[in-house]
Write a structure and sequence with these properties.
Elements lengths: L3 H10 L6 E5 L2 E6 L1 H12 L14 H9 L6 H22 L8 H11 L5 H17 L11 H6 L14
Antiparallel strand pairs: 1-2
Length: 168
């Protein structure tokens, strides 16, 4: 039987895996998760511009999921990230009649350039980039920077002492 704490953890972990459903012209159009969308955005923002490093190398999606399941991250920030993925998909559907992850790279680039000028877009993209940088440069104990790949890419040696457990 699950206790209260494990139920709470289950709900936190499920935050970015919750299903977003979109309707178009009055009918169910598509379904995706915020995390699926954000992983594609992370790749578009970072990987495509740095061919020798990619967000999978540093597990940026896993890192973001870990951070957003933490109790010290403000609920407003969690909601903003989830809502941003929803709004991005709505923009993609309005413009191309496809969810963001189904668009071509050129179409995704156009959608990202358009949302930068929206009330929420620039802040949302900055937040996503911040989490990519944290995943790349943070200590691997926090779930990103797998095998110190971000540090190796920058030819950086991590400081000492290193953390022995993840503390946020």
């Amino acid at each position: 039987m699950m206790n209260f704490l494990s139920r709470r953890n289950f709900l936190k972990v499920g935050f970015l895996s919750s299903l977003l459903m979109f309707s178009y012209k009055g009918e169910l159009f598509a379904a995706t998760t915020p995390l699926q969308t954000i992983v594609v955005v992370q790749r578009d923002l970072f990987t495509d511009n740095l061919p020798t490093m990619n967000t999978q190398d540093v597990s940026a999606g896993i890192y973001l999921s870990n951070i957003l399941s933490h109790s010290r991250v403000r609920d407003e920030d969690k909601e903003f990230i989830k809502d941003g993925a929803k709004w991005l998909n709505e923009e993609a559907i309005d413009k191309y009649e496809k969810i963001y992850e189904k668009l071509s790279p050129k179409q995704r680039d156009k959608v990202l350039k358009e949302i930068v000028d929206s009330d929420w877009g620039e802040s949302w993209l900055a937040m996503i980039m911040t989490y990519i940088m944290e995943a790349m440069l943070g200590d691997p104990i926090y779930g990103g920077n797998v095998d110190e790949s971000g540090w190796k890419w920058l030819n950086h040696v991590g400081g000492t002492p290193r953390p022995t457990k993840a503390v946020l």
